[in-house]
Specification:
2 copies of one chain form a homodimer. By secondary structure, the first copy, chain A, is α+β, with helices and mostly antiparallel strands. Chain A contains 2 helices and 4 strands. The radius of gyration of chain A is 11 Å and the shape is globular. Chain A has a 4-stranded antiparallel β-sheet. Helices cover 35% and strands 32% of the residues of chain A. At the A-B interface, helix 1 of A face helix 1 of B. Bound molecules: copper (II) ion (2 copies). One copper (II) ion sits at the interface of chains A and B. One copper (II) ion sits at the interface of chains B and A. Chains A, B: This is Copper chaperone. Chains A, B: GO terms for molecular function: copper ion binding. Chains A, B: It comes from Chengkuizengella marina.
Chain lengths: 66, 66
């Protein structure tokens, strides 16, 4: 399992936390959002998905991965 | 139908808009949220519900009606 922390802009409330964590879960990624830090720790299986696809899933929800 | 605009604190994103509008709809109230102004216009039937119950429904979602 690979572990990476992304900087994500635009998350403002617990609904955003849920939206991102649920979306990641759907693609088999464990996401831990830190709303105050504006970060998302993603834990994923590299043989299953790559970081680019994870970033896209987050951006599709309306947030910016910086 | 009665029409009133409430000042609501804590709304930060479109998820919040949806949460409030859906909750109001469930109790038979039409709600128009203005995210920038931090206001919620409520349109309701006084014979059906009173303003106090509407405020409670909004506060139960985690927002402050001020
Ligand atoms: Cu949000
Ligand atoms: Cu929100």
């Amino acid at each position: 399992m690979k572990n990476q922390t992304l900087k994500v802009e635009g998350m403002s409330c617990n609904h955003c936390v849920n939206a991102i964590e649920s979306t990641l879960k759907e693609i088999g990624v464990k996401g831990n959002v830190d709303l105050n830090k504006g970060s998302v720790e993603v834990i994923y299986d590299e043989s299953n998905i790559n970081l680019e696809a994870i970033k896209e899933a987050i951006e599709d929800q309306g947030y910016d991965v910086v």
